[in-house]
């Protein structure tokens, strides 16, 4: 039996935060429903941030309510501080993601606090979770952002990422995600960083969040698979991007990632034709946005003869 | 010292055969000169096919003459039959590539002969080469096309590819290139096929020709590197494509491939900023053509702090 690899849709959060138009909550929920029907069982559906920071998530409560009502869907929300976490808990999320930047410069610019302060804020989030009557039912995942490098700071040392992960683990992170926020990862770096963090993570699972900013996204997935990672973020159509590189490609495309995993013999439980059909629908909802990924352009490969097809003009 | 990996530009052949407009010979040669100055030392600069089949290569003699006059450039030409090979020899090429499709269906559609007949034609090309006074100075490379699958036939068996390679080696192929003509390769298939062919190739070098049709191009490069391959085809801006999938992505992008290789610690001798500048120029020569690759959108990563940059709106 093929080994299962989980792919989480983050397009509704990481993708939509980068697009120009605000997608109505009903479209977001239609996206969730269709993708769940296609076999995607994990989705980061929104972010609890002040609407004035990201107007796209003004409907976080409504989207959360709708997504949490879908049987079989593991819906998660991203938060960037205690206040957001409390909103996510109130909304009923049982999986909440938080982010700490390994790069001090990125942490200050993005979260307006140092990395150490961001770790301290995670401790407060955990305390708030533990103090809730329903706290034991809520899991906390922490992403270490800019784990492979930072547009502002440049390289980020492996030792620094391990140190940040250790600090988070010591206060009870229940999942560590290593995030290549701005497309600095490469397969060699992946092959070094995941084992280094795994060495301190014990039984805490590691997951990977790759962008395809410089084309290495799927090569990085392969390197992470070799390092034992079985949980990946991706976004339909590669939606998302890097605020520091306008027009740059975004997250690894969900459909290309699933195609890769299935070709490598892993099981994802995801129906690719259904996913491609949904992508076409989402494209109509976001006119003017650049959708990435190669599979949607080429289509799925034929596995059976198709003798009526035209001849190729030239080989190789 | 870093290990050298050779990357051959095939955009002037595989890329231009797919574009709508015929690029003037002077632009082709300006491309060669600029790319050579950027450190690209191997280029497939044209194809000797009847101009009525591919009008783009009506200038094959002029482009060949110009490219062969550039000191330090290893210019090669593609041929699909004996007649083309004789033209290439006459033009002075000392490296001539030929193609045999492992898929019978693709061979018939593309070269209008069976795979066995294509192998027999290679024997005639080799004889013609050997009969020339300058024959010892001419190397013959053979690409096994559709080595990973075929749009018409579907999967292509590893044993079949090995059989074709063995037949070619027995009549003196001096390099074997495994070509994923239509984007069927994946890292698992690459990890199987290259060692299988290497086992029969002895000292004859293997090289790889990948398309990025379904987004797996650079992941396939990584798998081929692991299998010991040190010679890759690529095209500037990912020019090229698949005649059976209009709009599909083409060859792996030269600039993204070089970026990957350098990040993995290999030496390519290629100057990426110069390559990106050339790409921008070539884009002006081919208006309306879709250029692929991610690096040109995102730009090269910063390795030094850039404190004046704006803050990211959201993490991860």
From TrEMBL, chains A, B:
<dbReference type="InterPro" id="IPR013785">
    <property type="entry name" value="Aldolase_TIM"/>
</dbReference>
<dbReference type="InterPro" id="IPR043594">
    <property type="entry name" value="HMGL"/>
</dbReference>
<comment type="similarity">
    <text>Belongs to the HMG-CoA lyase family.</text>
</comment>
<comment type="similarity">
    <text>Belongs to the alpha-IPM synthase/homocitrate synthase family.</text>
</comment>
<dbReference type="InterPro" id="IPR002034">
    <property type="entry name" value="AIPM/Hcit_synth_CS"/>
</dbReference>
<keyword id="KW-0479">Metal-binding</keyword>
<keyword id="KW-0808">Transferase</keyword>
<protein>
    <submittedName>
        <fullName>Hydroxymethylglutaryl-CoA lyase</fullName>
    </submittedName>
</protein>
<dbReference type="InterPro" id="IPR000891">
    <property type="entry name" value="PYR_CT"/>
</dbReference>
<keyword id="KW-0456">Lyase</keyword>
<dbReference type="GO" id="GO:0016829">
    <property type="term" value="F:lyase activity"/>
</dbReference>
<feature type="domain" description="Pyruvate carboxyltransferase">
    <location>
        <begin position="5"/>
        <end position="276"/>
    </location>
</feature>
<dbReference type="Pfam" id="PF00682">
    <property type="entry name" value="HMGL-like"/>
</dbReference>
């Amino acid at each position: 039996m093929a080994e299962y690899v989980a792919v989480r849709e983050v397009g509704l959060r990481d993708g939509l935060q980068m697009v120009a138009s605000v997608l109505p909550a009903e479209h977001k929920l239609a996206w969730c429903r269709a993708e769940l029907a296609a076999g995607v069982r994990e989705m980061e559906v929104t972010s609890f941030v002040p609407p004035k920071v990201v107007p796209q998530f003004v409907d976080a409560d409504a989207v959360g309510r709708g997504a949490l009502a879908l049987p079989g869907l593991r819906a998660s929300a991203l938060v960037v501080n205690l206040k957001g976490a409390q909103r996510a808990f109130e909304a009923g999320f049982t999986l909440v993601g938080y982010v700490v930047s390994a790069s001090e410069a990125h942490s200050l610019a993005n979260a307006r606090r140092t990395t150490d302060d961001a770790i301290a804020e995670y401790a407060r989030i955990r305390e708030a979770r533990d103090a809730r009557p329903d706290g034991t039912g809520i899991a906390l995942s922490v992403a270490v952002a800019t784990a492979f490098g930072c547009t502002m700071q440049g390289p980020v040392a492996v030792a620094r990422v391990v140190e940040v992960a250790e600090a988070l683990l010591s206060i009870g992170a229940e999942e560590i995600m290593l995030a290549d926020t701005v497309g600095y990862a490469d397969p060699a770096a992946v092959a070094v960083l995941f084992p280094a963090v795994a060495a301190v993570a014990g039984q805490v699972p590691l997951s990977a969040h790759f962008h395809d900013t410089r084309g290495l996204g799927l090569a990085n997935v392969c390197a992470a698979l070799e390092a034992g990672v079985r949980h990946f973020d991706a976004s339909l159509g590669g939606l998302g991007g890097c605020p520091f590189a306008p027009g740059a490609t975004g997250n690894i495309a969900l459909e290309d990632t699933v195609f890769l995993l299935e070709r490598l013999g892993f099981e994802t439980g995801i129906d690719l034709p259904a996913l491609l059909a949904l992508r076409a629908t989402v494209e109509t909802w976001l006119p003017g946005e650049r959708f990435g990924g190669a599979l949607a352009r080429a289509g799925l490969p034929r596995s059976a003869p198709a003798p009526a097809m035209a001849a190729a003009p030239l080989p190789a």
